[in-house]
Amino acid sequence: MKTLYIIKKGIFILALLSVMASCGKDGSVGPQGSEGTPGIPGKDGAVMLSGNGVPATTLGNSGDMYLDKTASNLYGPKTGSGWGIPLGLKGSDGTPGSPGTPGATGPSGTAGSRILSGLTNPEATSGVLGDYYLNRTSGDFFGPKTALGWGTAINLKGTANVVASTWVDYNWNNTNANTQKIMAHSIPTPIFNAIGYPNLQVFYNAGGVLLVYGRNYGSSHNVLFDYSFRNARYSLAVSHSAIPNYQFFISIESLNGANLLDTEYSSIRGNRFRYVLIPPGRQLDASAATLRNGQPDWSKKSYTEVKEILGIQD
Length: 314
Prior knowledge:
The protein is α+β, with helices and mostly antiparallel strands. The chain has helices at about 1-20, 190-195, 200-205, 260-265, 305-310, and strands spanning about 50, 65-70, 75, 85-90, 115-120, 130-135, 140, 155, 165, 170, 175, 180-185, 210-215, 220-225, 225-230, 230-240, 250-255, 270-280, 290, 295. The strands form four sheets. Strands 5, 6, 7, 8, 9, 10, 13, 14 and 18 form a nine-stranded mixed beta sheet that branches. Strands 11-12-17-16-15 form a five-stranded antiparallel beta sheet, with no helix packed on it. Strands 1-2-3-4 form a four-stranded mixed beta sheet, with no helix packed on it. The longest helix is centred in the first third of the chain and has 21 residues, at about 1-20. It is globular. This is Collagen-like protein.
């Protein structure tokens, strides 16, 4: 009996030692895992540079703009080939003053155009007739200023040589009937200068693309012409006549013969349009994969996709 007691006691002690051994210190730390894959770098924004004289080839990055304040030349957007051919922004010299009577100095000539700039859009009171204005924040370029104001700006921060207007109010200057309204719009000469073509006809014949988008009252959508909204059909036509200056026409027509409503045609109610000019041969981002005749099929791209592909701002 005593022997059995000793055996049981020995088994108990062995079990206790086993439990104590299992409660020892933690094991060593394993090796560190491999580093995760870096995220995709964000796309750098374009920068508006300026200085006195021609920009150095080493200055700036692709997409940047440069204003030569001495010669009033605007370069860019910069590409892999350099700064390209500048856009001349300087107005013609002022008219010399007429000679005065002998011994007296004639009146001063008319001042030439100036290029103004700031971080916001120009005030109506800024500048004088013939001046230009550059919004250094948005890249919008206004001018020349006329008696009607600064007019429609062009944006210079998009893909190289691609030019986009701001949103433009409708002006029914051709037909303004109850069931049909038509307006003619001439693209300003500085815009054609920016893309290197004299007019819309030459631009088209060379293979350029004109995109026109509409924005309507009560809708957050921006739609490529031609399209329908409420009881109206919105259509685009391009003039092939040199007089007046190869305009394009926008028309709105009632779908059921009833009078058009101001919510369908009035800019006061938020109805506007904007246009984008894409020069031929413009190398675009790989995201423009759906091609037609060597160009993206823009009809299959949303307005948001087009902005992303071309790098234009709203």
